[in-house]
Structure formats: C-alpha cells, structure tokens
Amino acid sequence: MNKKVLFIDSGIGGLSTLACCLHLCPTLSYIYVADTKNAPYGNKTSKQIRQFLLEIINEQIKTNNIGIIVLACNTATSCAIDYLREIFPTIIFIGTEPAIKPAIKSNMFNAKILVLATKATCNQPKFKKLIAPYKKDIILCPSQKLASLIESYFLKQTPKTFNAIKQEIFLTCLSQNAQNANISSIVLGCTHYSLIAPIFKELFNTKIIDGNFGVAKMLLSLVSLSNENYYCPTKVFPIIKQTAPTRTPYHKILNNLLK
Q: N or C terminus: fewer CB in 10 A for the chain?
C-alpha cells in the first residue's frame, strides 16, 4: 500500500501549499485536515497547538499509512515541529516558514522587506532566530486578525469581508510605519495570506514571496529519494477533512487554486 502525505492547517490557508504541491507532485496520495474545531491557531499557546496536532496525527495514523506530514501552517511549524519530530520519529515532517532568505537574495540596496505573519508566529523563538541575521532589512508586521478575516472572506465573499481584509493589512502596516518605506518585496509568513496574494499585489505593487514552492520542492525531493512508494497510478483528488463542521467550500477553493 502506498504511503500517504498528510497536510494539517487550522483552516483553509494550507490549501495554498497543497495546491502548489499538487502542481509539482500530482500523483501522490494526499489527505488534508483542517482543524476547524480549534481555529485560529494564531491566538493559541504553543502547548495548546501541540496538543491539537497530536490529536489529529494520532487519529490519522490509526487508519492511514502516513509517511510524510506537512505542517501547512507557519504558526504550527514554529510552535510544534521539533516537538512532533521527537514524538513521531518514523514520520517525516515538512514545515512552512517565511521565505526570508529568497527575499534577502533579491533585495535592493537600501530597500526593506515587509514580513507579515501572525502574532503567534512572530513570538516564537524559532521565528526570531530565522529573522535575526536580517533585522536591519526587515519590517515585521504581526497581525492578530488577518487569518480569521481571510477565513470569513472565503466563507462569504462580500464587499464587507473584502474591505475588512484590506483595512487590517493597512492598519497592520501603519502600526509599523511601513507605509512610507521603500519596499522591495513582501514575504507572506502565513499560508492563509497566500490565498489573497492578489490583494497584496494591488495594495503594494511589489514582489510577493511565500514559502509554498519551497515546501513543494522539498516534498518532491523526499518522495523521489525514498525507498517507500508514495505514488498513485493516476491523479487522485486529495481527501479533505475538518475537525468540526463548516460551510466553507474547501473543495471549490482548492479547485480554483489549481486552475
């Protein structure tokens, strides 16, 4: 029986990562679990997030031959990936982190890189260590609400939910005096934010960078080098699950991302 790849996020954000992986690795067997019961993760403690992830993983490995787990959530990665690697040593974990290094490589002289992430991600030692060498080049913009506003928008796309997103982005950047800076690129430090990349492009008219392609390349490399069989004979649409009922159209969102 072929090994499966499990994606976990608090909600719809990880669909952006899954879509990128499907483009690069279309014949793998994917399961996507959205922890809708405990979303959002951005206002939870590390201890809580670790417990949520433990419960999901233990439930999935009971009935599925899981070989790789993708934490398709920057907050979950920062809080829990090292811990989970210790608990499940036979499973390969891939995390999602803000693509700081690619942004730095392409940065222009005297320009700044705008990094947007959840407050929970920004407060994690793992994230602080990641950005430490580049602090002079970065404007860090933490947001408590943006991921939840994106969830609301994809549940019900109205002018009100759309404008709420734009207002939160504006206020988040304003709070860090980013509005007048010379911005060379924007790093999206939350997989939810990748779903609204066109809004960032419209507001800032600059390069938008996320970590999704890096995750997809890592996944392709791991399955290619593995002695285990991860491939299906044909393309199979991912199995999508939620930990609590929701009216958000996950399948529709993923289909649109794959177009």
A: C
Residue 134 DSSP one-character state: G
Q: Which two tokens stand for residue 202?
A: 């419209």
- The vertex-211 CA angle with 75 and 31, nearest 5°, equals 70
Same fold flag, 4-96+212-258 and 100-209? yes
Q: What is the pLDDT of residue 234?
A: 85
Q: Which is the catalytic residue, given 21, 79, 141, 190?
A: 190
Tokens, residue 170:
């504006």
Q: How far is 4 from 212, CA to CA, in rounded Å?
A: 19
- Annotated catalytic residue within 25, 73, 122, 141: 73
Closest CA to 142 of 201, 189, 200, 74: 189
CATH class given for the domain over 4-96+212-258: alpha beta
**Structural domain spans, the chain:** 4-96+212-258, 100-209
- pTM value > 0.90: yes
Rounded Cα distance between 232 and 3, Å, is 9
Q: Which of 58, 69, 5, 68 is nearest to 31 (CA)?
A: 5
**CATH topology classification for 100-209:** Rossmann fold (3.40.50)
Of the candidates 62, 146, 69, 137, the one whose C-alpha atom is nearest the C-alpha of residue 107 is 137
Hey, which residues does 187 pair with through a beta bridge?
A: 115, 209
Q: What stretches of 37-120 adopt beta strand conformation (E)?
A: 66-71, 92-95, 112-118
φ and ψ at 257, to 5 degrees?
-70, -25
- Classified as helix, coil or strand, 162 is helix
Q: How does pLDDT run across 47-83, given as a tens digit for each residue?
A: 999 999 999 999 999 999 999 999 999 999 999 999 9
